[in-house]
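WARN  no MSA supplied for this record, continuing single-sequence
INFO  ligand: magnesium ion
INFO  echoing inputs
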Amino acid sequence: MTDTSADFNTPHAPEATIAAIATSPGFGGIGIIRISGSEALSILTSIFSPHNDIPEFRSHTLYYGWIKDTRTGLPIDEVLAVFMQAPKTYTRENVVEIHCHGSYLVLQDILSRIISLGARLAAPGEFTKRAFLNGRIDLTQAEAVIELLQAQTSGGLGLAMSQLQGRLGTLITDIRQSLLSLRAIIEVAIDFPDDDVEIINPATMSEQLSRDIITPLQNLIASANRGKIYREGISVIILGRPNVGKSSLLNALLKEERAIVTAVPGTTRDTIEEVLDIKGIPVRIIDTAGIRDGAEEVEEIGIERARKKLTEADLVLLLLDASQPLVNDDKTLYVSVKDKKTLLVVNKIDIAGRDQSFLDDTFPDTPKVSISAKTLEGIEELETALLRLVSGGSDWDPGHSCVPNVRQRLSIEGALASAEQVLAGLAVELPPDLLAIELQSALDHLGDIIGETTTEDVLDMIFEQFCIGK
Ligand SMILES: Nc1nc2c(ncn2[C@@H]2O[C@H](COP(=O)(O)OP(=O)(O)OP(=O)(O)O)[C@@H](O)[C@H]2O)c(=O)[nH]1
Ligand SMILES: [Mg+2]
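INFO  complex generated
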């Protein structure tokens, strides 16, 4: 279990009542102040004058009234206030929310009144940290809250929601349970050394270990690899010789006239980068200068930049002009991107026709799509093909998957390595006390993920990523 006893003795003890402005700074229709802790209600009653007399606050009920300055008796703002009695609250403590007008000055004024009445200003993420320390959510769910706040696309949001529901936490808890039952057997073998041959059945144990621990951990790592692109996005570079329609394709994907398009070869001199959302994945798309031999000075610098960007890109869209015969520049480019994930994009099919099967001879084994950046024909197919290439399939649904983040993934890898050690140990009939050490290490790694064994440093690191008021 997490050692929370230290917390209770520090000035940041969970029983201190904390308060913060929960809405973001700037203009807004309303702004919300949140208070959590044992003094939340008494602070509210000191500063709130309800419109109608109320004998006592009913939990989870909104009351209309005024916040008043206790020193002068003057009104500060007209508000709605709610008291939520523990444990059915965000933090599992008593919580008060005051919904004011969205003026930052008003919010600051009310907050300082609350602080003067004994609450302490909440640290970033402290409300969510309390929800975790008080056992309402596990650590994976707390991290999901950060992800939810930071998600940039619908796919990222889907991942966060899935994690917020506790899917990953449940899965990890199940795997830990299997580890605990294996450890129980091994502990018996340690206690009765003379009988260990009968107690440990290496074949059954290995089977259990593979089925209930190693395979699920491997699946989680595979899922982390797939899900990474929803969180971090991908970078896609458009390459091709001059005038094939690279900038037109960038504009088509962006649905706006971002880059200059002309009939003159060598129009784009610099790289142009934009971020767009393709079916839930943040995609950084890079338009480049057309690559050809014998370009003049400025164009040559542009070509050099394009080559630099190429090394960072996750995927290359190699553009060809269907209305022109293939030339050497096309083939040279194709060879130069050979070790990159590449999608061949045949453009201008509105003037050349769709049948491009002859390209199969020149570019075997490279996936192809045919488009018109002008009429937008084939753009949807291009997006689908692009995602299939980077995610290894388009039917994967981030909202229904367990996708560990980087921190969780490292712990899963640690647990997997230990579990594999146990498997190897069983094969050579390693003494049970050595097996027990590896099992414990796997348990600790998994405990880190859900917050059972997570150290205070790691917790601080996680909650520091939050904003104040969350
Ligand atoms: N008919 C037709 N014309 C296109 C299509 N895509 C681009 N063009 C035309 O091709 C010419 C070149 O387009 P750009 O998008 O500037 O080509 P680019 O590859 O960015 O060219 P550089 O920046 O010079 O390397 C322009 O006249 C476009 O209107 C298409 O799908 N169909
Ligand atoms: Mg261009």
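Confidence is low (pLDDT under 50) at residues 1-13.
INFO  checksum written, moving to next record
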